[in-house]
Amino acid sequence: MTTQPLLLKSGTVFIDTIDYSGRMTNQTLPVPTLVTESFRGGGMDGSVEVDMGLEPLEATIELGGIEKAVLKLFGQPDVGVTMRGSFSRQGGEQATPGRANLRGLIKSPDLGAWKPGEQTQTTLTLAVHYYKLTLAGETIWEIDVPGGKRIVGGQDQLAAHRQALGI
Fold this sequence. Notes:
The chain is mostly beta strands. The protein has helices at residues 68-71, 159-165; strands at 7-15, 18-19, 24-28, 34-39, 48-54, 57-64, 79-88, 96-110, 121-135, 138-144, 149-152, 155-156. The N and C termini lie far apart (50 Å).
C-alpha cells in the first residue's frame, strides 16, 4: 500500500503576534535558492556548480480586506511572522502541524484595486532574513542570514566558515 501525501487542510498566519485566522487567504513561503557559479579547473572535463550563498529570501501573505495594523508595519526591519499549517493524509484523521517562523522587513504593502462592491485585499511582501521550517515537530531547516547560519536536516552547513572567521 502506498503512503498518501500530506495535504494542507488549513492554515493561518500570525503577524507581529496578531492572529489573522479567518482573514489570511494565501501565503507563500520563502524558497531557499542557492547562488551558484560555474567553475572549471585544470584537468577537469567539465564545470561544476559551486555554492556561493543564498539568493534573497522573500515571502508573501494575502489578507482579505484592509488591515491597518499590518500596514503600520511597513518599513519595520524585524517583523515576526509565523505561518502555520495543518496537514493530513487522505482518509486520515491525524493532523500534522507545520510551521514557518520568519523575521524580516515588510517591503511592500499592496492594497490592490479598489472596486466598489468588490472584495478588497492586502498583499504583504516580506524580505526575510530569518527562516525556520518545522514539520511534525522536526526542524527541516533554519536559515539566519545575518548570523551566517544555514542548518539543513540538522547539519549546519556554514559552521566551519563561522569558526574560520572567529565568529
